[in-house]
């Protein structure tokens, strides 16, 4: 079984955004990962609804939108209209997480929950049956190109155990510092979806890198 690959458009050349999206369309990527940052929940600002809409206009791959923002429930409908097919919200940003998940699903999108490196996997036990995706942050969110946090491997194993115990269909997505060196080990412990930003877009041949990642076996 091959992993799903979700290149992060945050690392793309924004002066040539259409060209970068068309490159992803022609590649073996399964999704386009779209990181939304508000400068409050994370110490950085990326882009918002109009840029997401522009990406969607040219994209032939589903948009996997990761909301690293406070009060994400206020923007779910807008991002869905902008083309998000999967919407992930942060556990740490949602005091009424179950309600937020229900709202995402009512909009016809897949629902994901992202967790920061310090957030224990076990906190997902009451929501794991209701979601389609767990986005495990393997770096502290806010900036691309960070060093991978080694504790991520054991965290993935614990989430996998939780998914099996609760008979959940949730996929495990890894976001941050993913490369061809650590990807085989991530897949071995239970990862399903690999997000890669700088590793893809900073390479001399992004399409070839995506293909290499796609050929890794779980």
Automatic annotation (TrEMBL):
Q: Which Pfam families match?
A: Ribul_P_3_epim (PF00834)
Which Enzyme Commission numbers does its entry carry?
5.1.3.1
Record's HAMAP family?
Answer: RPE (MF_02227)
Q: Report the protein's function.
A: Catalyzes the reversible epimerization of D-ribulose 5-phosphate to D-xylulose 5-phosphate.
Q: What is this protein called?
A: Ribulose-phosphate 3-epimerase
What keywords would UniProt list here? Carbohydrate metabolism, Cobalt, Isomerase, Manganese, Metal-binding, Zinc
Q: Does the keyword Cell membrane apply?
A: no
Which co-factors does it depend on? Zn(2+); Co(2+); Mn(2+); a divalent metal cation
EC primary class? isomerase
Where's the active site on this chain? Answer: 35, 175
InterPro entries listed in its UniProt record? Aldolase_TIM (IPR013785), Ribul_P_3_epim (IPR026019), Ribul_P_3_epim-like (IPR000056), RibuloseP-bd_barrel (IPR011060)
Recorded metabolic or biological pathway in which this protein acts: Carbohydrate degradation
What domain of life does the native source organism fall in?
Answer: Bacteria
One of the record's GO molecular function terms: metal ion binding
Q: Name the positions where substrate binds.
A: 8, 66, 142-145, 175-177, 197-198
Look up the record and report any one GO term of the cellular component aspect: cytoplasm
Paste the cofactor note.
Answer: Binds 1 divalent metal cation per subunit.
Instruction: Please give the family membership noted in the entry.
Output: Belongs to the ribulose-phosphate 3-epimerase family.
